[in-house]
Design brief:
Elements: E1 11-13, E2 18-25, E3 28-37, H1 38-41, H2 59-65, H3 84-92
Antiparallel strand pairs: 1-2, 2-3
Length: about 90
Amino acid sequence: SGYLYQKLTPLIDARNDSFFALSLKNNQIVLKEGRYKADFLKTYDKHLLIAPETVKIALNNIYQFMTLVTNPHQLVPNYLVQTQAERDLKKDN
């Protein structure tokens, strides 16, 4: 992003008062990608709300961190959510 010196924490709604997030500052991960409760966000300060009128795009940063994919059909998803069957199995063990 073009907001190099500000802490950025993109969120994706994960239901049940949870969200998927990671946090970056100076292009370094300060909060590992994962699923977090909404209350956890309140412990983070100085967040930046990015709206269409304030968005900054830095293409050089995108190129630095992107992975070039020549065949998107070979991508392997990294799911952060367990299925109900996985949760039940974990509970039984």
